[in-house]
Amino acid sequence: MKNVKRVFSVIAVLCIFGFKYIPAPEGLTPLSMEIAGVFLGTIILWLTVSITWPSLLCIFALALSPLYTVNQALSASLGNWVPSFVLFSSALCYMLSKTGFLKRCAIWFITRPISKKNPWMFLGLLFLAPLAIGSIMSPITTFIIFIPIIEQIFIELGYQKGDRVPKIITLGILCFSSVSTMTTPIAHTFPILGMSLYSQFSGGAHIDFVSFTIVGVISSLILFVLIMLMIKYCFKPDLSRIQNVDTEFLLKDMKPMGKEEKIVLTVFLAIVIIWMAPGLITGIMPQTAKFLDSLGPAIPPLIGLIVLSIIKIEGKPIMNFAEVMSKGVPWSSWLLVATTIMLGSAITNKDVGLTNWLGTFIAPAVSRLPPMICVLAIVSITVLVTNFATNAVTVTLVSSIVVPLVISGAIPNLNAPAMATVIAMGSCVAMATPPSTAPAAMAIGTDWLDTGTMFAWGMFMCAIASVVLTFIAYPLASLLM
C-alpha cells in the first residue's frame, strides 16, 4: 500500500510541476497546462494519498504560477471567507453538541408516544431524527450521537451483530446523517463550498440560504419517504421485536436543560435567524436585509463565539477557546476547503482558458441531449463519485467542470444556480462505501453493518437520491433561483 501511494505521489508531483513543460495542444497555452497539471496532480493526491499536505502543496504550486503573487495566493485560499465560515460554524456546533442538547433532541424524537403504536412509526421517527438534527449539524457529529443510542436499543431488544434488522437500522442512520447535509447550508461545508464556487464562476452572483434550504428540505423529505418505502417493500425487515419496544430506558440519564445549554442554544438560534433573514425580509425591511446580507455567512457565527467567550457561568466563560479549537474544528476539512476555493478559481480563470477549451469538446456531445437527461447524468456521476472520493473533492471536481460550461452556454438550456445546487447536494449523498465519509467508516467499525449490505443497499439509496435531485430538486431550484 505504501509503495502504491509513493507511485501516485510521484505521478502527482510530476503533474503539478512538470505539466507546464508539455507542449500545449491547440487552444491552450503554457499557463493552461501549468494550472491543469496542478489541478490533476492535486486531485490524484487527494484521492489516493492524503488531504493535508497535498492541499499545502497545491497552494504553494499556485503561488509560484503567474496567476498569483504569494500574498494573493494566501488571501485566495486561507484568507477566503469560506474556510472562516467552516472554522467559526464548526466551533459553534461543537459548543451545541457539548451541552448535550443534540442528544436530548435525538431521544425526544424516539420517545414520542406515537412511536409505541407501530414499529414502522418507531423506525420512521428513528430515521427522521438524524435528518432533522443533521440539518444544522455535521454528519459526523450526528452519526456519533446516534450510534450509542441505537446500540442500546439493539441490546435491549436482544439483537446480535449480523442480524438483518440492525444492519438496515445502522445503514438508515448513516443514510439520513449523510442526506441531512444537503438540507441546509447551516454548518455544512459542502453546500457552502458549492455555493461559493458558483459565486466565483458567475462573477459574484450568489445562491441565498433560504432558497437552498427550501430546495434541500423538500427534496430530503421526499427522499425520506421513498427510502422508507424501499426499506418496507424491498428490504422487508421483520420488525416484530420492535413492536413492544419501551424507549423509556433512554430517558433515565436525561437531566433538565441547564443554564449553559439554554444560552448556547439561544445564541445558535439567533445566528440561524441572521443567516436566513436576508432571504425572508427583503420585501419588508430592505435596508435591514441588505445590512444582514453584507455580513456574509462567516460573521454571525464569529459574533456568536465572541458572546459565548464573554458570558460566564460560575466565574468561567461558557466557551473554552483552546478546547474548542483543538476538539471542535475539523482542521483537515478547513484546509481542504481553503485549497478548493483557490483551485476552483484558478482553473476557471479566463486567462487560463481551460473552461472554453473543455466546452469545445463537451458541448457537441451534450447539446443533443434533453436537458433533464443531461441533469440526471451529471447528478448520477456526482453521487457515484462522492461514494468513492471525499465530498469536497467531488463538489470541486464536478462544479469546476460543469458549472462554468452551463454559465457560458456550452452546456445549453440548463439553469446554472440550480445546477450548482444539485451538484452541491449530490456530493453529500455518500453511504455506499466505507471510504466515502467518516460516518460510513465508523458504521462498518461498529460491526452492526457489513460492507456487502452497505454497498448493495447504499447504492440503491444513492440511485433514489439521484432521481429525487434530478426531478424534484433541480426544477424547484430553477423556479427559485
Characterise this structure.
The chain is mainly α. The protein folds into two domains: 1-76, no CATH class; 80-260 and 331-480, no CATH class. The chain is built from 22 helices and two strands. A two-stranded antiparallel sheet has the order 1-2. It starts with a helix and ends with a helix.
Helix-strand blueprint:
Layout: H1 2-18, H2 30-48, H3 52-64, H4 70-76, H5 81-98, H6 101-110, H7 119-133, H8 139-157, H9 164-179, H10 189-202, H11 209-235, H12 259-281, H13 286-295, H14 299-310, E1 312-313, E2 316-317, H15 321-327, H16 331-347, H17 354-366, H18 371-386, H19 391-408, H20 416-426, H21 438-445, H22 451-480
Antiparallel strand pairs: 1-2
Helix pairs in contact: 1-2, 2-3, 3-4, 3-16, 5-12, 5-14, 5-16, 6-7, 6-8, 7-9, 7-11, 8-9, 9-22, 10-16, 10-19, 10-20, 11-22, 12-13, 12-14, 16-19, 17-19, 18-19, 18-20, 18-22, 19-20, 20-22
Which features would summarize this protein structure in a list?
mainly alpha, 481 residues, globular
Number of strands: 2
Total number of distinct structural domains: 2
Average pLDDT, all residues: 83
Radius of gyration: 23 Å
User: Helix coverage percent of residues?
Assistant: over 70%
Briefly note the structural class of the backbone: mainly alpha
Question: Uncertain spans, ≥5 residues at pLDDT below 50?
Answer: none
Strand order of the largest sheet: 1-2
Reported for the largest beta sheet, the result is: 2 strands, antiparallel
Order of helices and strands: HHHHHHHHHHHHHHEEHHHHHHHH
End-to-end span in angstroms? 46 Å
Shape summary: globular
- Beta-strand portion reads under 5%
Number of helices: 22
